[in-house]
Design brief:
It is built from 3 helices and 9 strands; from the N terminus they run H-H-H-E-E-E-E-E-E-E-E-E. The chain has about 180 residues and is an alpha+beta fold. It folds into 2 domains: about 30 residues; about 140 residues, Peptide methionine sulfoxide reductase (Metal Binding Protein, Guanine Nucleotide Exchange Factor, Chain A, Beta Complex).
Length: about 180
């Protein structure tokens, strides 16, 4: 059986090639296609899946990054979007990693969360729509904000791995600083 391709098929294939080429030039983390539920279930641990996809909350003081003092950045476990920097991380005493500001504000979106009978500000990743945690106005200076984030929604990229992982543009912020490993 012979297949025929229309002009639309050819133009579509060319357009896809141009988009993929642009994505490669911009860095792999810049363009993200929504992953299927089956793919997410395979790629994530059950806790990561429940936190990012169903807004669950991990146990305080018993999670991967609450006490991480190494230098680097934190990215969305689902999409790789750069979210937070260790330079903005602080000890909040809550048992979850806390930050004063996002690394890339455009990669964070906020929603009103009324699940506990009160209004809170939920924080999600912009591209993958992963639930990250909540935002409170009781943080330290300079912002007065506390982004209280679930470790299960994050992947940590150490400063000495930023370039190799495709996040080299963030390495400059750590130059001249004694790096904690």
């Amino acid at each position: 059986m012979r297949r025929s391709f229309s002009i639309a098929h050819v133009i579509g294939a060319l357009l896809l090639a141009v988009i993929l080429s642009a994505a490669k030039d911009l860095g792999a983390q810049t363009i993200q296609v929504k992953r299927s539920d089956a793919d997410l279930r395979r790629a994530l641990t059950p806790l990561q899946y429940e936190v990012t996809q169903h807004a669950a909350t991990e146990t305080p003081f018993r999670n991967e990054f609450w006490n991480n003092h190494r230098d680097g950045i934190y990215v969305d476990i689902v999409s790789g979007e750069p979210l937070f920097s260790s330079l903005d991380k602080f000890e909040s005493g809550t048992g979850w990693p806390s930050f004063t500001r996002p690394l890339e504000p455009a990669n964070i979106k906020q929603n009103t969360d009324r699940t506990l009978g009160m209004a809170r500000t939920e924080v999600r990743s912009a591209r993958a729509n992963s639930h990250l945690g909540h935002l409170f106005d009781d943080g330290p200076e300079p912002t007065g904000l506390r982004y209280c984030i679930n470790s299960a929604s994050l992947r940590f990229i150490p400063v000495d791995s930023l370039e190799a992982a495709g996040y080299g543009k963030y390495a400059a912020a750590f130059k001249g600083k004694a790096v904690k490993r």
